[in-house]
Design a protein that fits this description.
EC number: 2.7.7.7
Protein name: DNA polymerase IV
Structural class: alpha+beta
Radius of gyration: 24 Å
Bound molecules: 2'-deoxycytidine-5'-triphosphate, magnesium ion
CATH class of the largest domain: Alpha Beta
Subcellular location: Cytoplasm
Number of domains: 4
Cofactor: Mg(2+)
CATH architecture of the largest domain: 2-Layer Sandwich
Catalytic activity: DNA(n) + a 2'-deoxyribonucleoside 5'-triphosphate = DNA(n+1) + diphosphate
C-alpha cells in the first residue's frame, strides 16, 4: 500500500450559470438556467436560486418553467466556459503538476508532496478557493481527503462555496454513516439492489463480506467493499505533456475590424506570456500560430515555424495575423494565438538508434 496521500477535489458551483452571472450582473439575483429554451430544450445547469424551486440539470425546459415561472433561460456559450475552465485549471496547476481534470469544471489534485502552505492540504484548498474567487470571479467547492472517492464526496458535502475535510482519523466514522447512494458508480439500480439486501449505509455494507458483494455485483462488488471501508487506491492521473499552449477569446460583441483585433492581441500576448511561464517551462518553441473565427463561424488558422523566440511578442504575431486576414475587414467573433513546442523526443531516439 502506498503511504498516506492528500487529495483535493475541486468542483465549480453551478458552473455554466456562474459564468453567466459573473458576466451579466442582471442575471445575479434571478433564478437562472442555462440550456435550450425551445419546445424540446433541456436544462444544462441552473443557479442555486432556481434549484430552490426544484429545477435540475437534464430537466426539460418546459418542466423547469412550470416549477419556476420566473425562470430566466440563457443559451450555453461553450467557448466562454472552456476559456473560464482553462483559467481555473491554470490556477490549480500553479500549485502542483499533479492535476487530473474530469470535466470542464472539476479536477483532482494530488498534493501529497506540496510543501507550500505548511504542507497542509486544508490550507491549500482554502487558498485555491480564494484565488479562483478573486481572479476568475466564480466560486468553487473543495473536498480534502486521503483518496479520490472521499475527496469527491467531500467537495459535494458543503456545496455551494464550501470546503469539507475528511482527515485520515475521521475516515472510519465518516464512511460508516455514509449512504450507499453517495458511492462512485452507485446509481438507482445498484442502490435499489443494495436496499433489497438491507444495506443502506457503508456501515451496513461492511458487515456483508466481500464474497457476497462480488457474487452479487461482479467486479463492482469488490470496489463497493473497498469503498465501504474508505479505501480507494486509484492514482491521480495527469494527462499528456503540453504540446502547445494557446489563449483565445470569444467576444460578446464581434470586433468590427483589423485594428480592433490588433488592440486585443496586446492582451492576448500578455496572457500567453503568463501561461507560458506556468505551463511551458523552458521548452523550446517550434511554431507560432494565430486563429480567427469570423461572425459567420468560419474559422481559419495560420502557423509558421519560428524557433528562435523565447517569449513571443506582439511583433512576432502581427505578420501572421495580417497574412491570415488579408486586406478586408470582416466582423470577428473569436481571436486566439499560441505556440507549439518542438518535439525533442524524436531526434533523441533516432540518435540512439545510430549510436
Ligand atoms: N452539465 C450539462 N448537463 C448535465 C450536467 C452538467 O451540460 N446533465 C454541464 C453544466 C454544468 C457543468 O456541466 O455547469 C458541470 O456539471 P456539475 O455536475 O458540476 O454541475 P454544476 O457545476 O452546474 O453545479 P454544482 O457542481 O454546483 O452542483
Ligand atoms: Mg460543478
Amino acid at each position: 500500500m502506498s503511504g498516506q496521500r492528500k487529495i483535493i477535489h475541486v468542483d465549480c458551483d453551478s458552473f455554466y450559470a456562474s459564468v453567466e452571472m459573473r458576466d451579466d450582473s442582471s442575471l445575479r439575483d434571478v433564478p437562472l438556467a442555462v440550456g435550450g429554451d425551445g419546445g424540446r430544450g433541456v436544462v444544462a445547469t441552473c443557479n442555486y436560486k432556481a434549484r430552490a424551486f426544484g429545477v435540475r440539470s437534464a430537466m426539460p425546459a418546459s418542466e423547469a418553467r412550470r416549477l419556476c415561472p420566473g425562470l430566466v433561460m440563457v443559451p450555453p456559450d461553450m467557448p466562454r466556459y472552456r476559456s473560464v475552465s482553462q483559467h481555473v485549471m491554470g490556477i490549480l496547476r500553479d500549485l502542483t503538476d499533479l492535476v487530473e481534470p474530469l470535466s470542464l469544471d472539476e479536477a483532482f489534485l494530488d498534493v501529497s508532496d506540496v510543501t507550500e502552505h505548511r504542507g497542509s492540504a486544508t490550507l491549500m484548498a482554502r487558498y485555491l478557493r480564494e484565488r479562483i474567487r478573486e481572479e476568475v470571479g466564480i466560486t468553487v467547492s473543495a473536498g480534502v481527503a486521503p483518496n479520490k472517492f472521499l475527496a469527491k464526496i467531500a467537495s459535494d458535502w458543503k456545496k455551494p462555496d464550501g470546503l469539507f475535510v475528511i482527515r485520515p482519523d475521521d475516515v472510519a466514522d465518516f464512511v460508516r454513516a455514509l449512504a450507499v447512494e453517495k458511492l462512485f458508480g452507485v446509481g438507482k439500480v445498484t442502490a435499489a439492489k443494495l436496499h433489497g439486501m438491507g444495506i443502506e449505509t457503508c456501515g451496513d455494507m461492511q458487515s456483508v463480506g466481500p464474497e457476497v458483494l462480488t457474487e452479487r455485483f461482479g467486479k463492482q462488488g469488490y470496489r463497493l467493499h473497498e469503498m465501504a471501508h474508505g479505501r480507494d487506491e486509484r492514482q491521480v492521473v495527469v494527462a499528456r505533456v503540453a504540446k502547445s499552449v494557446s489563449v483565445e477569446r470569444t467576444f460578446s460583441q464581434d470586433l468590427p475590424d483589423r485594428s480592433a483585433c490588433e488592440t486585443v492581441m496586446v492582451d492576448l500576448v500578455a496572457e500567453l506570456e503568463r501561461r507560458l511561464a506556468r505551463k511551458g517551462g523552458s521548452k523550446p518553441i517550434h511554431k507560432l500560430f494565430v486563429k480567427i473565427r469570423y461572425s459567420d463561424f468560419s474559422t481559419h488558422t495560420l502557423e509558421r515555424v519560428r524557433e528562435q523566440v523565447a517569449v513571443p511578442q506582439l511583433d512576432d504575431y502581427l505578420p501572421l495575423f495580417r497574412e491570415l486576414v488579408g486586406e478586408t475587414d470582416r466582423p470577428v467573433r473569436l481571436l486566439g494565438l499560441g505556440v507549439r513546442f518542438r518535439n525533442d523526443d524524436a531526434p533523441v531516439t533516432q540518435l540512439r538508434l545510430f549510436d
